[in-house]
Amino acid sequence: MSTGRPPESWPYLPLLELAHALGHADGGLAASIEPAEPVGPGSTSCRGREPGEFALLLWADRPGAPPSGLRLNAPLWYAHGFAEGLAAERNRAEPAGIARTGGPLQGQAASL
């Protein structure tokens, strides 16, 4: 459902972007310890916090309670950032000449 307003007019868009950035940073740090399988939606925990607690962390010292949209959407933005950070770090750390299967390239693939 559209509000009819462009996303940049959402009052908490910078906080969703912060949630994404936190997830990206955490994903990059987790690359060396997470299993090699792709990250799925799985947990709604963000930095060890439940969605409401994470929204409060992002909301910081602003007056009043965080908007329900922040509580609902921040975990999704965090999860996307986490998956992107994890993938980016794994791709960066992958040595040249090593296939994603973990072994060296062989045969025709090695000559490309």
SSE layout and pairings?
Blueprint lengths: L12 H18 L20 H9 L8 H26 L19
Helix pairs in contact: 1-3, 2-3
Question: How does this structure look, described?
Answer:
The longest helix has 26 residues, at 68-93. The chain is elongated. It has 3 helices and no strands. It is mainly α. The chain has a domain at 16-32 and 43-92. 21% of the residues are buried. The model is unreliable at 99-105 (pLDDT under 50). The protein is 47% helix and 0% strand. The termini are far apart.
Shape descriptor reads: elongated
Helix tally equals 3
Q: Report the strand count.
A: 0
Q: Helical content, roughly?
A: 40-55%
Q: Which H/E pattern describes the elements?
A: HHH
Please indicate the percent range of residues in DSSP E strands (runs of 2 or more).
Answer: under 5%
Average pLDDT level: 79
What is the straight-line distance between the termini? 48 Å
> Over the alpha carbons, how many angstroms does the gyration radius reach?
18 Å
Helix-and-strand structural type:
mainly alpha
Major pleated sheet: none
- Given as residue ranges, the uncertain stretches (5+ residues, pLDDT < 50) are 99-105
Tell me briefly what this model is.
The protein is mostly helical and 112 residues long.
Task: Fill in the keyword field for this structure.
47% helix; 112 residues; mainly alpha; 3 helices
